[in-house]
Design brief:
The protein is of the alpha+beta class and 217 residues long. It has 2 domains: 54 residues; 151 residues, Glucose Permease (Domain IIA) (Distorted Sandwich). The protein is built from 3 helices and 16 strands. Strands 11-7-8-9-13-5-4-15 form an 8-stranded antiparallel beta sheet. Strands 3-16-14 form a 3-stranded antiparallel beta sheet, with no helix packed on it.
């Protein structure tokens, strides 16, 4: 387990806040009850930041023909829908909701060539809102494998997530299970898969990034 680089600034701010409130309490000689409350609050803040930005080590053996889960969380959508940004046809959508307690590293579901990338500024509706996939701040990434099969996946900001980070661009070669981005706080990742894909998860399942097999071509 390691601390993710995206959390360095947040951790520094948290430590500064903890130092200030404890210094103020000592300066004004606060009562023991107040001091213990501040100690508990400080510990909660520190632990929350550390657990949110934790980044478990992953050892992934890429598997041709499989789609790995891009994020930790819970499956909230499995449906056939129209994808109108890139494919302009019917696809199977699988959506994963990431709560604040989940690991928020995002990982490539397949290996291949990034054929499309776009960042969209937008709103910050709750991640499970029906229009969050089209109205919220988000990125769209499409990767084509060596067989010519393409998977589209989106990072979608939630009501608390105000910053999406990505590490890929068009024409990059990516490896299944490696990091492609990070979303701060509650958020969602959508996958759009070809019709006929064998889906291996159900709504409500808890899934793990780079470990759970979402489906097979």
């Amino acid at each position: 387990m390691k601390f993710h680089k995206e959390g360095y600034t947040t951790l520094a701010i948290a430590i500064l806040i903890i130092f200030i409130i404890n210094a103020v309490a000592d300066y004004y000689d606060a009562s023991q009850y107040v001091k213990w409350f501040i100690y508990a609050l400080s510990a909660f803040l520190f632990i929350t930041v550390v657990q949110f930005f934790r980044s478990p080590k992953k050892v992934v053996s890429p598997q041709d023909g499989t789609i790995l889960c891009p994020a930790d969380g819970k499956v909230v959508v499995i449906e056939e829908t129209e994808e109108n940004e890139y494919f302009h046809d019917r696809r199977i959508q699988v959506s994963i909701f990431m709560s604040p307690v989940n690991v928020h590293v995002n990982r490539n579901p397949i290996s291949g060539l990034v054929t499309f990338f776009k960042y969209h500024p937008g709103k910050f509706l709750v991640a499970w809102h029906p229009k969050s996939s089209t109205d919220n701040e988000r990125t769209t990434v499409v990767v084509k494998d060596k067989e010519g099969r393409e998977v589209l996946f989106r990072q979608i900001a939630g009501a608390l997530a105000r910053r999406i980070v990505w590490y890929v661009k068009e024409n990059d070669q990516v490896v299944q299970g490696t990091e492609f981005g990070f979303i701060k706080f509650g958020s969602r990742v959508d996958l759009f898969l070809p019709l006929g894909t064998e889906i291996n998860v159900n709504i409500g399942d808890k899934v793990t990034g780079a470990k759970t097999i979402i489906g097979k071509f």
